[in-house]
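Hi everyone,

Forwarding the result from last night's run.
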Amino acid sequence: MYPQAKLIIGGEERAAGSGGELAVTDPATDDVLGRLPRAGAAEAVEAAVLSLPGLADWAALSAFERGKVLRRAAEGMRATADTAALTMTLEQGKPLAQARGEWLSSADLLDWYAEEGRRAYGRVIPSRVPEIALTVLRRPVGPVAAFAPWNFPAWGLMQKIAPALAAGCPVVVKPSEDTPATAWLIAQALLEAGLPPRAISVIWGNALEISEALIRSPEIRKVSLTGSTRVGRIVAGLAGQHLKKVTMELGGHAPVIVARDADLDRLVPLAAQWKFRNAGQVCVSPTRFLVEAPLHDAFVRGLAAAAEKLRVGPGRDEGTDMGPLCTRNQRNVISGLVGEARAAGATVETGGGAIGNAGNFYAPTVVSGMTQAMRAMNDEPFGPLALVMRVDSVDAALAEANRMPVGLGSYAFTSSQATAAKITRGIRAGMLGLNHFALALPETPFGGVMDSGFGSEGGIEGMEAYLSTLTVTAMA
């Protein structure tokens, strides 16, 4: 069931790499799914070198023709959604329905940017003198190194691949070693749709070794990373040494402000659905629930009851609501955060432990009585852990929401337009969901502020990241 994925360098598959062999494991069973080739610095340099003629191959096509290729790839992805979803579930762990939805949404990204590429407009500037014409042109920035994590192995990569290709930029893709086959399937769809071979490479292996080799390569002109704030500082620092353009989508710790006039009947089921989606391994997962005192107890009871109803199991099993965490290390991190909070006086309302003897399963967990001093309120959990803090007012909730140096996703639930406006004015974040949790769409910008990174993916802003400006002044 698991494909024997190969490295792709300049559009050509490689069955062996200088990094040796990679054993990919199933997070639900600990079984080895496959043994794949593993790249090293040599393959990274080769992929970067081939990306430069790939720029000539791909950027030479009109945006209209590039769009045709991207739309064909999107249709190809939709035709293989069931197979791709199973691959993603096997290597990442999420339920099949979530994997299928992610794959289809990634195809939507290709469709949207196929059209947006045709709208990379320049402009004509009125000249001061009749003899000189002033124009501004938009050009592809050049070959791109794209680094994506394991939590959304299709969507996370496609947020980079789709706008880069639409702009005319070739891409060198470095997926997580935990989820390499999903990236391989995306590249297959693009190549089968007619993407010039040298316009895409997919390599996986030692993250530091490959990242350094790609960023140092003079052919690479743009770096895009989705990852933790710690890794973002390293990658941004290295890119800065070589003056590479960067987009950084980094960590968060999303607050949810629950005002005293919130509709709990609507909020509680939504909170359970979105908190435990993908086992909480979502950079904008609602995590810090800051609940005004009059609703606190009822909210805690409701969320705990909803969490207890979730069915935890292998993602490929019918009826599974939440699969395992992707890695054993992540399960251990969550266990440590819960243990420390409990020892500091917090109450574990439900969950709070690993499930079974195989795989990386952890129970959906709700913890109340959280305080600022607890580590879980300061370190992004990235797992099925909902943290609840009682607050006396919306002002106190805003102060706690803004206390962290990160600002990616944020949420607020209220029936008052005045309260919603106050939170909108006061929140320090890149995104705010009012009375719902859905933030990521192809047509909307996705990104954070402060330690959550800079630049946006999605929307017209995502396209801008892969374009450079050429000003032309021409005398008649």
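The CA atoms of residues 259 and 394 lie 6 Å apart.

Cheers,
N.
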